[in-house]
């Protein structure tokens, strides 16, 4: 099975994406430590901008681009479709975490936040995008199970 299944010809800078993931991990840590649903609401909007729009207004992406330039990190281009799908999952995950915090379901919110933290750390440190793997498996099953 091919683990790179682009839907479009869009490409993204893997280095910037990994820096974004690192920033998501830091924000998630703040959320867990302070039970702060506002940080998750920020992530809902930032993930949403990157998932459903061009991402040009994403605060985390803008910061990551500047950090990549400041540290002269070499761009490495990758398929953007799986990354957008992963951002969609991040948006949904963040929304659930924020709602659970608002409803005072602290334990469930913390567990989901730790899971999201693990995914962000895997992406930022090891370039392992769990959402991209889910996307690839989804594309595989969609292609092999037509209606």
List keywords for this structure.
single chain; 147 residues; mainly alpha; two-stranded antiparallel ribbon; 73% helix; DUF4395; transmembrane helix; transmembrane
Describe the model.
The protein has one domain. 73% of the residues lie in helices and 4% in strands. The protein contains six helices and two strands, in the order E-H-H-H-E-H-H-H. Helix 4 crosses helix 6. The model is unreliable at 1-5 (pLDDT under 50).
* Biggest sheet details: 2 strands, antiparallel
Number of E-state strands:
2
DSSP helix fraction: over 70%
Q: Catalogue the unreliable spans.
A: 1-5
Global mean pLDDT: 90
* SSE pattern: EHHHEHHH
Q: N- to C-terminal separation? A: 21 Å
Layout of helices and strands, plus pairs?
Elements (H helix, E strand, L loop, with lengths): L10 E3 H21 L2 H16 L6 H12 L6 E3 L1 H22 L3 H21 L3 H15 L3
Antiparallel strand pairs: 1-2
Pfam families: DUF4395
Keywords: Membrane, Transmembrane, Transmembrane helix
Protein name: DUF4395 domain-containing protein
Summarize the structure.
With 147 residues, this protein is mainly alpha-helical.
């Amino acid at each position: 099975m091919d683990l790179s299944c682009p839907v479009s010809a869009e490409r993204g800078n893997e280095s910037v994406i990994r820096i974004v993931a690192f920033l998501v991990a830091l924000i998630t840590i703040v959320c867990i430590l302070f039970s702060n649903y506002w940080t998750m609401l920020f992530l809902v909007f930032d993930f949403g901008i990157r998932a459903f729009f061009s991402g040009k207004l994403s605060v985390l992406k803008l910061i990551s681009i500047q950090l990549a330039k400041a540290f002269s990190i070499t761009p490495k281009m990758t398929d953007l479709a799986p990354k957008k799908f992963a951002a969609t999952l991040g948006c949904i995950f963040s929304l659930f975490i924020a709602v659970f915090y608002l409803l005072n379901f602290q334990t469930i919110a913390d567990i989901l936040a730790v899971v999201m933290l693990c995914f962000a750390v895997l992406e930022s440190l090891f370039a392992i995008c769990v959402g991209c793997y889910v996307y690839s498996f989804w594309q595989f099953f969609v292609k092999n199970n037509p209606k």
